[in-house]
Amino acid sequence: MHAKVALLVLLAVRLAAGDPTLTATPATLTKSVHSITIRWSNLTSPSPLDYVAVYSPPSSADLDYLGFLPLNASASWATGAGALTLPRLPDLRAPYQFRLFRWPPGQPSKNPRVDQDGDPLPDATRRAAVSGEVAYEGAGARPAQLHLAFTDEADEMRVLFVCGDAGRRFVRYGLPGRREEEWAEAATEARTYERRQMCDYPANDTVGWRHPGFVFDGVMKGLQPGRRVGSDSGGWSETYSFISRDIEAKETIAFLFGDLGTYVPYHTYFRTPPESLSTVKWIIRDLEALGERPAFISHIGDISYARGYSWFWDHFFEQIEPIASNTPYHVCIGNHEYDWPLQPWKPSWAANIYNGVDGGGECGVPYSMKFRMPGNSSFPTGTGAPDTRNLYYSFDSGVVHFVYMSTETDFTEGSDQYNFIKADLEHVNRSRTPFIILQGHRPMYTSSNEVKDTVHREQMIQHLEPLFVKHKVTLALWGHIHRYERFCPMKNYQCLNTSSSFVYPGAPAHVVIGMAGQDYQPSWEPRTDHPDVPIFPQPERSMYRTSEFGYTKLVATREKLTLTYIGNHDGQVHDMVEIFLEQVDGTPDKMVGAVPKKTWLYMKIVGCVMLAMLLGFVAGFAVRMKRDSARWTPVKNEES
Question: What is the pTM of this model?
Answer without folding.
Answer: 0.88
